[in-house]
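call fold(seq) -> tokens
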Amino acid sequence: MINCPKCNGEYGYEDGNGYSCPECGHFWTDLCLEEEKVMDAVGNELQDGDDVTLVQDVKLGKQVLKRGTKAKSIRIIEPVDGHDLEGKIDGVGNLYLKSSIVKKL
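ret:
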């Protein structure tokens, strides 16, 4: 038995071309699972709860977040205008970020 990546159901099974979940109907392959991984700017896999730092300056209105600024407890989200992470930055609050401009701590 294989856990479904969508509903986390435990009854996923291999059907020749990939894997299927009888609980939610989701179909996936090993290649799909590789493509769903979110990587940082240097190739490390990111997961919910990781802490990251910015690898470049980011303009935020009139304010500039400098390289090395830390974002705590990131959350991977569905992409919104290219931003695929949400994290908390001290003094700023929650902010959408792009995985291509952060590095895992």
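The mean pLDDT is 89.
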